[in-house]
Amino acid sequence: MKRVVTFGEIMLRLSPQDGTRLLQKPLFEASFGGAEANVAVSLANFGMDAAFVTKVPQNPIGQAALCELKKFGVDVEACAQGGERLGVYYMEKGAGPRPSLCVYDRKNSSIAEAAAGDFDWKKIFKGAAAFHFTGITPALSKGAAALCLAAAKAARASGVLVSCDLNYRKKLWTMGQAKKTMTELCKYVDVCILNEEDAESVFGIKAARSNINEGKLDARGYQDVAAALFERFDFKAVAISQRESYSASANGWSGLYFERGENLSQAKKAATPKMFASKKYELPVVDRVGGGDAFAAGIIYGFLSKLGGQKTVDFAAAAGAMQQTIEGDFSRFSAAEVDRLAAGNSSGRILR
Question: Which of 13, 9, 34, 292 lies closest to 147 in space, CA to CA?
Answer without folding.
Answer: 9
